[in-house]
Hints:
The protein is mostly beta strands. The protein folds into two domains: 26-215, Single-stranded right-handed beta-helix, Pectin lyase-like (Pectate Lyase C-like, 3 Solenoid), CATH 2.160.20; 261-441, 3 Solenoid (Pectate Lyase C-like). The chain has four helices and 35 strands. The protein has a 16-stranded parallel beta sheet that branches. A hairpin with a 2-residue loop joins β8 and β9. The longest helix is centred in the first third of the chain and has 13 residues, at 49-61.
Amino acid sequence: MSDGGTARTGTVDQRAAEILRRVSPPVFADRVLEVTAFGAVGDGASDCTAAIAAAISACSRAGGGRVLVPAGRFRTGPVHLLDDVELHLAAGAVLAFSQESADYLPAVRTRYEGVDCFNYSPFLYAIGRRNIAVTGSGVVDGGADEQHWWNWVKAPAPHEGPAKQRLLAAAAAGVPMAERVFGVGDHLRPNLLQFVDCQNVLVSGVTFRRSPMWTIHPLRCTNVTIRGVVVDSHGPNNDGCNPESSRDVLIEDCTFDTGDDCIAIKAGKGPDGWQAGESTAGVVIRDCRMRAGHGGVTVGSETSGGISDVVAYRCRMSSPDLGRALRIKSNPERGGHIRDILFADIEVGEVRQAVLEVALDYGRVTAGGHPPYVCDIEVLRVTAEAAGCAVRLIGLPDAPIRRLRLRDCSFERLAGPDVVRHVVDADLGPGRGEPEQLPQR
């Protein structure tokens, strides 16, 4: 497989600026409609679903503007955004989502762990919209706990396992997406926020808690700004932010304390990711703080569409419950390219396992027809105070990790040795193991 071109060059700021020239938050009309004017009551008991929907519809029809949720606890089912609408949660406002799964039907077009289907509506949802936002200093409370949503993950039954296998089998068999319909009895959890096929997206300032699974999920979106949010959610698969099959994304000044990866960049899984137009390209992550999670900044594991041109810099991450700081993961059943990834000026306090992990045997899968192609990874000025090891690099014989560079990095108080397997044409610095040489061709 070809690596698809020449590696990116330039300073960190230059590489980020090249992406950011295509990113700008949407601007909204000077119009404010308060949800209470449409019948919403912030008493924590009244069902505000219809009132919030009516306010959003009226705002969009009028040419757009701000739909204001004032202070109070507003109980609601799914909230679907429309063109040119900024949903603004004022200080003291809580969108408290229903814990009744039936409230999230009828099913909508969505994606579950990289595979397309119809399923329960994500709680905050939009599809095919332009100029949309969720802003403010309020709280989005997904209401998930051990009795709601999180208990769908594993035994005792019922749980999501059988439905996940049916969905994967349907995708592998080429069953049309419209026929992959899930819902009652299937236990496939919805995302807390998912925007699908949208342009000009802003998520700013809001605190997200108790997500059923992935928290902020832009899917096939273009021009996305995620700024100043807090994700504090520790359930299973509670990733903080997952830009997937999207282009031109900025994630800045955010705080993540999660039950899975803090930020995980994705590009579909299997046949749905191998289609044209499913790649992710142009992601800037800067000035973020990561606490607990499986990974701080992660690429994968859904990589089938390919991921490129990612710049993550000026981040701080530390927790005894942080698994890895910087992580790339895929396997030969998923494939896709992962290239032009730059990690720079990242301070790691404490991390339980590796500071940098590149694992192409994710899920212990070492054989398959779609080996990933991973190349041109730069790690600059990354420091760690305490870690399990500095690097854990696991390529495969037919899919080595290529052209990985570590420069001006410092790793202290390492509990164990590095792991370096099937890495070629790399510069890991002194004492990091000897990568193989690329065979002559």
